[in-house]
Specification:
The protein has a seven-stranded mixed sheet with strand order 5-4-3-6-7-9-8, sandwiched between helices. It is an alpha/beta fold and 276 residues long. It is elongated and about 70 Å long. It has helices at residues 4-10, 19-31, 36-40, 48-62, 67-71, 95-104, 121-129, 142-155, 203-206, 214-222, 242-252; strands at 73-76, 79-82, 110-115, 133-139, 160-164, 176-181, 227-236, 255-261, 267-274. It has two domains: 4-63, Ubiquitin-associated (UBA) domain (Helicase, Ruva Protein, domain 3, Orthogonal Bundle); 77-274, Rossmann fold, CATH 3.40.50. The chain binds S-adenosylmethionine.
Length: 276
Amino acid sequence: MPSLAELLNQAVLPDSPTARLDAELLLAFALGKPRSYLRTWPEHEPSAEQLSAFAALLERRRAGEPVAYILGHQGFWSLDLEVAPHTLIPRPDTELLVETALQLAPATPLRVLDLGTGTGAIALALASERGGWKVTGVDRILDAVELAERNRQRLKLGNAEFRQSSWFDVLAGERFGMILSNPPYIAADDRHLGEGDVRFEPMSALVAGADGLDDIRQIVAQAPQHLETGGWLLLEHGYDQAETVRALLGATGFSAVESRRDLGGHQRISLGQWTA
Ligand SMILES: C[S@@+](CC[C@H](N)C(=O)[O-])C[C@H]1O[C@@H](n2cnc3c(N)ncnc32)[C@H](O)[C@@H]1O
């Protein structure tokens, strides 16, 4: 039998900056061990069952399936989240939304809404950082709401809750001190939809009409009826949508409108305050 070190060196995966990491994550998963085990026991020879399990995992990855879907979980902020093909795999980019929310709003009690919560990533990150906030996450897809609720229970975050809703539909009469969303924002004919991990993610999490802005327009238009005076709306969007989103926020009557840049220097979130 080959050793763990030999298996990793022989693993054939599509050329990518994460190929070695992917192979390590898949091998550790096949062994049922943490990744550190591979470095601690490089001479270990796995069983025949473990070998064939690893081969099957490599095959799935070679077919393009995202590692997070194969493993069934993904790190986001300080949390380990269950992920599933009903919704988006949380991205590191979205941590900018969490970071900005924590900077903007006081740590005093606050009602917070996460629209299109998916795995619950944003809602649960905020709930974990601010015990005094009550965070509601909604998603149109029931499977996503159930996934977010499983994540909440596993993380034991009693100050978050999840409901099924198309944007604000079930929230009539409810107001929040902060509303956040990482909504679908890709144009229906965007060529990136045929590339990489997004090929395996659902269109319901990605696509928003011909220009990618249908959902953002809807959220910006309806948010004022659900924000307290002085409350904030924070939106993640595409790297080339910041100017349009700022214009939308301004035209709707938001003040203190601005965009913030991600680590790559792209304006990936825009925000505004409702003072009317
Ligand atoms: C880009 S994903 C973001 C998921 C998660 N918030 C994150 O950042 O990883 C967008 C999410 O919005 C949800 N969604 C799409 N249309 C919706 C609607 N009309 N109402 C509520 N949620 C919606 C999708 O099901 C998906 O989970």
